[in-house]
Specification:
The chain is an alpha/beta fold. It is built from eight helices and twelve strands. Helix 2 links the parallel strand 2 and strand 3. Helix 2 crosses helix 5 and helix 7 runs antiparallel to helix 8.
Length: 242
C-alpha cells in the first residue's frame, strides 16, 4: 500500500493541489496536522483533505488555536494575527471537522504525531538531542512527525543509546530501518530555504520512504494572503522557503 504523507498545509490550497497532482496514485493519506494557519484558504484545504482516500488526519497547534483551544499569547505577533483571522473565517463545517481530530495516533509499526511522541502538539524535533529524548519513549519502530516544517529523519540502531541524522535525497526511496523518526516537511510553508512544497511517499509493502518536492505558483498565493489582510511577512517568506 502506498501512503501519501503530508503535513503543515497551512491553508495553502495551491501548494496542496500541486502535491496531490504530483503524487498521482496513492492508496491512503496520513496528514500530520496544521491544516490551517498562516495561509488564505483554511476552509478549502480542510474540504480537500477530507475527500482524500483512507485518510488519517491529526490536529496541529494552529488547528487547535483556530478552535480557541490554545491562547493567542502562545504565538508570535504574525502567527497570532493569522490565528485570529482564521478564527473569523473558519466555517461551521471546518470547525466541526477539526474538533474530531487527535494530535497523536498509532498505526503499527508507526506512531503519528504532529509535534513529537513526548509532546504531540508543541515539541519540535530538530536535532539529535530532541530526537534521542523521543526515541527513549517511542513505543513503535517508526514515528512520523510534522510541526518543524523541515524534511528530516533520524535513526537509532538496535542496542544503541543515541541516534544519527539520515540524509534524505529528494526523489530517492530510502529503505526504512528500525528505529526511525521521519518528517515529510511542509506542504504550505517550507522552512528549509526551498520554497517547493514538501511531502513523502511511504510504501508499506517495500517499507520505503521517498521524500518529494514540487514547485507551485507562489505569486498567486502571496496575492491572496495580502488581499485577505493577513500579515505581509507570511507572503514574503513563501518565496524564500523560510
Amino acid at each position: 500500500m502506498l501512503v501519501l504523507v503530508i503535513s503543515d498545509i497551512h491553508a495553502n490550497l495551491t501548494a496542496l493541489d500541486r502535491v496531490l497532482e504530483d503524487a498521482r496514485s496513492f492508496d491512503a493519506v496520513w496528514c500530520l496536522g496544521d491544516l490551517v494557519g498562516y495561509g488564505p484558504d483554511p476552509n478549502e484545504c480542510i474540504a480537500r483533505v477530507r475527500q482524500l482516500p483512507q485518510l488519517t488526519c491529526l490536529i496541529g497547534n494552529h488547528d487547535l488555536a483556530a478552535l480557541g483551544s490554545i491562547p493567542l499569547h502562545r504565538f508570535n505577533t504574525d502567527a497570532s494575527a493569522s490565528v485570529s483571522w482564521t478564527r473569523d473565517h473558519l466555517s461551521e463545517a471546518s470547525t466541526s471537522y477539526l474538533q474530531t481530530l487527535k494530535a497523536k495516533t498509532i498505526a503499527p509499526p508507526f506512531t503519528l504525531a504532529h509535534g513529537s511522541p513526548r509532546q504531540e502538539v508543541w515539541e519540535y524535533i530538530l536535532d539529535h538531542h530532541s530526537a534521542d529524548r523521543n526515541f527513549d519513549v517511542l513505543e513503535t519502530d517508526y514515528c512520523l512527525v510534522g510541526h518543524s516544517h523541515l524534511p528530516i529523519a533520524f535513526v537509532r540502531f538496535p542496542g544503541e543509546s543515541y541516534c544519527l541524522p539520515v540524509q534524505l535525497p529528494v526523489g530517492v526511496p530510502m529503505t526504512l530501518t528500525p528505529r526511525m523518526i521521519l518528517n515529510p516537511g511542509s506542504v504550505g510553508q517550507p522552512r528549509d530555504l526551498d520554497p517547493r512544497a514538501a511531502y513523502a511517499l511511504l510504501d508499506l509493502d517495500s517499507m520505503t520512504w521517498e521524500p518529494r518536492r514540487v514547485g507551485y505558483e507562489v505569486a498567486g498565493v502571496q496575492e491572496r494572503i495580502l488581499e485577505a489582510g493577513l500579515p505581509e511577512r507570511q507572503a514574503i517568506r513563501l518565496v524564500g522557503g523560510w
